[in-house]
Amino acid sequence: MQFPAVMPIRPRGPIDAEVRPPGSKSITNRALLVAALAEGTSRVIGGLDSDDTVAMRSCLAELGVEVHRLEDGWLVEGGQLRAPTRTLDAGASGTTARFITAAAALVPGRVMVDGSDRMRQRPMNGLTEALAALGVRVEQLSTNPGLPLEVDGGGLAGGSVTVDGRRTSQFLSALLLVAPLAQGPLTIHLFGGELVSRPYVASTLEVMRAFGARVEEDSGPTYRVEPTGYEAREFTVEPDASAAAYPWAAAAVSGGRATVLGISPTSLQADLGLLDVLAEMGCEVERSPAGLTVVGRERLRGVDVDMNEFPDAVLAAAVVAVFAAGPSRIRNVANLRLKETDRLAALETELERLGAAATSGPDWLEVSPGPTRPALIRTYDDHRMAMAFAVAGLRIPGVVIDDPGCVSKTWPGFFDELERW
Predict the structure, then answer these.
(1) Which of the residue ranges 115-119, 143-147, 154-158 would you say has the lowest mean pLDDT?
(2) Considering 51, 312, 382, 403, which one is annotated as catalytic?
């Protein structure tokens, strides 16, 4: 898909939209990996086709997994992974980099994993230390905290291991996803019992169990995974609640209405937590099997909220806060500094371009509304910056998004969809 260098956003009145976002990136990459590890042919329906999931499919292909495109998803020929002949490229995808590194432990041979410049700066050591404790040789090939890595696989021992989940839940998810292929039962403990973005781990367990894994979780929390392997099956990916944040935010700032179709009210996706934040800000939230709806109100309230369990929704919430009647504070989101960009710093800078007063700390962001103004918004090659600030342009004349093509990471058709709202 071709994108212009910049994308002006057309202001408008209250929106009235029904939106079915693309499939969840997080669930798609989990399902693709598990299907690749399962014996037999699995069908993954409704998954997201974007830069991140292309990276996962490309890495799996290098490991000998055949993935065939269907009209509504993919057929995945799972089974034994083979040693690749060239370096696996995770691109800018954190899930691909972490999950494929763990899967490389199962490969009979050496696996090199690399990625984008930003991915080289994002941490991997919490995962590599856990793999090393399980007998896997992992070598960091530069002074970067992340990629490139070389993994000397051949199998994953069972036993007991502790993983650090304080910066990202993806280290724990990566170990869980490969644990059914370990040589014996694997028990995973959390360092200090701490875990950010906990609902993402619930999504990991949901996908694993759908493919026949047996996982026990206690209140420690400790996870015990039996070496059952996976069973091939058909799996349907829900629409992405992380993407749904933007039509919901658009309803809030425009005083309109947005219904997101296809996500169950009982879904485990983390970013459904944004609905509670928007309700606290004064929006009306309707939940039914037919769809999840946000109705904006003329006057929004500032909030003080802990968004540790759904940090990807912080960008949408921060933009909505620009239009509130008072200041907002978003807390306990230190891991936003380790994402596609330092999102707290990026939000502080770009919110001020719009006229708000914004201040960030180690794990918090404060937003105080001010007279809004036109702005060229830098996106830092971060899809969520582009989508969140495009929402502001529905209300503020003169908002222009720089490098709009970065939305290809998770929602390539976002700007076309935005124009229909």
Answers:
(1) 143-147
(2) 312
